[in-house]
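tool_call: predict_structure(chain=1)
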Amino acid sequence: MDELAAAAKQDPITFRRKLLTKNPRALAVLDLAAEKSNWNEKLPAGRGRGIALQFAFQTYMATVLEIEVGSDNEVQLIKADVAVDCGPVVNPDTLAAQVQGGLIFGLSMALYSEITLTNGRVDQSNFHDYRILRIDEAPKVEVHIVHNPEGEIGGIGETGTVAAAPALANAICAATGKRLRRIPFGTGQLVSS
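tool_result:
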């Protein structure tokens, strides 16, 4: 969607808003994520924000991820603002924890998690040789709930995971101008693209 917005010479959120005039739930999460992330605030060089908007598991969710790409091409995850409308919410703390955990899991996969094979055997055997996001690398994740007690009940378990790679890819492109299409993104792709 961001590539379509770029071709139309429009901001990614503005472009999506025009397409969502008949979908108020999607528009509400998009607007809330944009507001909470200060989408229109200019960022310094090397920083970027990426948006992912989705309808998954009967839940509407918009994720804005802010990152910084250093001179060494390492990606630092700064902040994520996630707006969620999953209909009635029984326990908001559980919802936030599910989104946070799913997003961290998805960002680990998008940045590092690659299974390699040697002579038909998997090289990785456990966390000592399978890179995952560490606590000091995790972004601050703020979950903003759209209260919709009359809405259709949606799921929340995997929604954060689904949003991670597209939001990260769009943020990397915003920070560097490079569009990455194969995960894990890692430093190698930033150097070679």
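agent: The CA atoms of residues 53 and 62 lie 4 Å apart. Proceeding to next step.
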